[in-house]
Amino acid sequence: MAGQGSGGNVIAAICNIFIPGLGQLVQGRILAALLFFVLVSVCYAMAATVILIFMWIPGALLHLWAIIDAAKFRSPGI
Question: What residue intervals traverse the membrane (predicted)?
């Protein structure tokens, strides 16, 4: 990827809107992608239960963080 604000980062951020972590995966950051996907999925799954319905808030915040992280990523280039 080129740098912050590049077309690749915009595509990665758009990918994250649909599936958390997909943008990081597009950028080649497998560990970050897995972390975002699992954390957001667990929060949303817990929010689907009636008892832990408040868990959508941290899930939404993590989802937003994943989008912003993909948009602002700068590859450690030469």
Answer: 6-23, 30-57
Nearest partner of 37 among 26, 53, 48, 50, judged by Cα: 26
What total of structural domains would you count in the chain? Answer: 1
Query: How far apart are alpha carbons 46 and 75 in whole angstroms?
Result: 34
Question: Is 40 domain-assigned?
Answer: yes
- DSSP per residue over 22-38, as a string? HHHHHTT-HHHHHHHHH
For residue 17, what are the CA distances in angstroms to 5, 35, 75?
A: 17, 16, 21
pTM of the predicted protein model: 0.86
The answer as to whether 60 is a domain residue is yes
What does the pLDDT look like over 24-64, one tens digit per residue? 999 999 999 999 999 999 999 999 987 788 999 999 999 99
- Give the per-residue pLDDT at 70: 94
Which residue segment(s) compose the domain that 53 sits in?
A: 7-68
